[in-house]
Amino acid sequence: MNIDADTIAVRASRRGHWLPVREEVLVAFRHKFAQEARKRGPGAPLTPPVQDLANLVNTDPVLRMYFTQAIEQAIAAGYDLGYRNIDELMALINVIMTYAPPFDTTELVGCPLNALLDWPMCMPAGFPLFRSPALNAKLKAVLQYWCDFLSGPDSRYYLIPEPPGWFSPEALSYLRMSEFVCDPTKPYYDFKSWNDFFTRKFKAGARPVDGPTDNTVVVSACEATPYNIQNNVQLTDRFWMKAQPYSLADIFTSSRQALAEQFVGGDVYQAFLSAYNYHRWHAPVAGTIVAAYPLDGTYYSDLEAEGLDPGGPDDSQGYISQVAARAVIVIDTGDQRVGTVACVFVGMAEISSCVIKVSEKQKVQKGDEIGYFQYGGSTHCLIFQRGVIRSWVPKPPFDFNTPPIKLNRQIATAGR
User: Fold this and answer.
1) Domains, the chain
2) Quick count: other Cβ atoms within 10 Å of Cβ 85?
3) Which ranges carry the L-tryptophan decarboxylase PsiD-like domain (predicted)?
4) Cα 214 to the chain's mean position, in Å?
5) Strand partners, 354
6) pTM confidence score
């Protein structure tokens, strides 16, 4: 099966601008990394987590079978991966460990590892492969190693005023750095690392809170584009189906069933961040934190029912809310009209380091920061109890032209 570039462009939704829509751009990107890997020579040492990943895949016969099949199936389908086997892929992954994305308005490759795994992950063998707990544990270590690089000073080589730097004139027209805490008179705008830049904070007053004293005004927890609204969510549901219904027991995990049961029959609002969005989370309501916990999960698992989802889990956002690495923060408002609100911040591909900044029993005001995605943005769900939401500000259906809702802007009116 050969698929031309036009067909690929149509099918490659790649929401959030983390990956380019045009497949030929990703092909060039993968080949650039392949060229760099070849420069290092055959048998070049791998960083410890990449070597551990390679050891796992090469010594586990089932994983080696699935990985080999996924690569071969993608190549047979007509996709140019830039590598032909597991060893060549590992060499490319190793190059990523010291990569920081440059600025690009239309061809940004914000998720380089996702770009390498783009097609194998949605091949028949890729679906079971990327659900493997052992594989995901090694991928977590690889991503943490890369995140550590992005948190150090050596990652700042594109935090410069010349193209393709993030402070070039064109980049600044997109980023609106005047809204953020920074110092343009200092090198790198005074950011200590790539992650320091990407988790930059708004200046005071840049995003005022709607209805600050009105508990029934629910605001956006992230600067994010609406993806879905679902009513009457169930404790357990078939989340792996095309409609991707939300299954509360799976979102919160079986060990937290009593917590999940509080939201049966309620509503879910889901929205996703783009590469140019603000990347921190804020409280959508005021109240007391009654739960705050991280969950390990998948990183590159797609849903078969969505078919080819080449942007990674972009079209599988409902599904990954129940299986991907994520952070759960639950706020009891103490107001019967609003009840308890759950905030689930979900990692997608590289954007999987969910940092919680609050703890149980802590009181928060609406609009207070409660955590952030380290490196970039992702998707998140706000879950409400039965009968709480009277009306929504964003109205489905949502598509690629739906604009993002600013942080702290009203998304719903509560009041049961």
Assistant:
1) 5-153 (no CATH), 161-198 (no CATH), 217-414 (2.70.70)
2) 13
3) 48-173
4) 31
5) 373
6) 0.84
